[in-house]
Each structure stands twice: as C-alpha cells, then as structure tokens.
Fold this protein.
Amino acid sequence: MQEIAPHVFIESSYPGVTLGAINWPHGLILIDAPLRQDDIRLWRSTLANLNGGLDRLLVNLDEHFDRTIGSRQVECMVAGHEKMNQIFRDRPVTFKSQTIETGSNWELQTGLGSIRWAPPDISFSDQLEINWDEHPVLLEAHPGPSVCSIWLELPHQKVVFVGDTVVPGAPPFLASADLPAWKETLNLLLGPKYKDYTIVSGRGGLVDQNAVKEQIKFLEKAEHQLEKLVDKKDSLVEFERSAHTLLKNFSVSSELTDHYLLRLNWGLQQYLKLHPDFSAAG
C-alpha cells in the first residue's frame, strides 16, 4: 500500500482495479473493492492496521464488474451514482461467473462463485460532498466510460481518483461508453484546475498529464474504427480487424493479447448497439 498524500493510500497489487483508502479520525472512505474473497479479507486486515475511525464508506467509481463484484463482502455502506441502482436492478440478483466474455479482469480469475450485488446505499446525480474531516471529499459525476462514472476528489490535498477515465497501458472498456462525453471529461483533467493534482487511475495507479493525452488519442482512433464499422455491423471479421488495429497502440504480453482483443471486439460491438446512429462528427 502506497501513501500518496497524508492519510490517502492506494493499493495496486490485487487483481481487478486500483483500490484507494482515506484514513480519517471519523472513519475510512474506501474506493472500490477487491475481486476475490481472500483479497477482500487481506484488504480489510490491512485497513484495520491503519487505526482509523470506526465508520466505513465504500465508493464505487462506476458499475463495472471489476470494481463491484466484491462490494458486498467489504460489509459497509456503499456510495455511487444514482444510475447504478437501475443497472443493478437489471442484473440477476445473484451472478455466477464464467457466463459471459467481455475482456474484463474478473474473467481471468477462478473461484469467484456466486456474487450478490450491492447497489449504492447512498446515491447522487451530479455531486455529493462528504464531510468526515475539516476538508471535504467530493464525489462528482463525470460520464464517459459509462453513465455511472464518477470521480472522488480531495481538493485540499489535490488528489483525484478518476476510475476508468484514464486506463494506461491497456485497452479501455468501450462497451458502455460515450466517446464524446469521455473526451470532454479528459479535457477537464488537462485544464488548469487539475494541473497540480495527483491523478489516480482506477486501473493503473498514479498517472500524469501525458497519460491523459494518450487516452484522448486512443479514443479518437477508436472513433475512426467505429466509423468504418457503422456499415459493417454484421461482419465479425471487420470487428476483429478493428480490434487488432487498436491493440497495436499498446505493448502487451502474449499472455494477454487474446484477452485484450476480446475486450476491444466486445467493446466495439456493444458500442454500436448502444449508439446505432454513431458518427464521430456528430
């Protein structure tokens, strides 16, 4: 676990997503959850050693399986965007792994068993302020990777957790995305407000402004591929070709190549189903 600011920690050693913890006298504010039962127990034991306050609040930065599968097992109040409630209502009450293949990190794990989702106990539409210390924590909606995407910001410490807004070194998830909104969100990170901020990616730990710029460039390339696919929606070969083209933007190990191709292929197909009238110009 790495302390990136006073009483603000991140943990990137578990499969899934980068976790966060804010240790205040009132209690712990947690960012996202581990995937596996053993990792959840180890994470909870690590947090207990911080000797913070008794209260616990878990913030899910979006609805993605990789960050929500373990939420219930963390056993505390959950906060997230209000649209997560509808998405969770549409999911089966219990979920058994190995049922779909989307290129998500959880699909590389074994022994997850049945999962019971934990919809947010506390939800919001645009912004929520948490006052557990003399300086507030801000939760803000920043759609792009999904309609449920939020950031957790510590204005006093100049730290912002951005979830899947920036995914360095690997293909991002496109299936639930809105690319124009995503690029707009990324441009906020390039603005003067966040110039001196510590930016925490939900899948890569600390990132800099260059990673933000690279994310924008990749999304523009994804838009270009989607434009070529609009009239070829029934051709699986064309989707596979586009996935291979996009994967060339990353240096990935041979062990993960097929997994990332699956992520891109699935993402491109689902994006055009979600946006049937897609046009990068519009």
The chain has a mean pLDDT of 90. The two ends are 43 Å apart (CA to CA). Helices lie at 37-48, 65-68, 71-74, 83-90, 179-189, 209-229, 236-247, 254-274. The first strand starts at residue 2 and ends at 5.
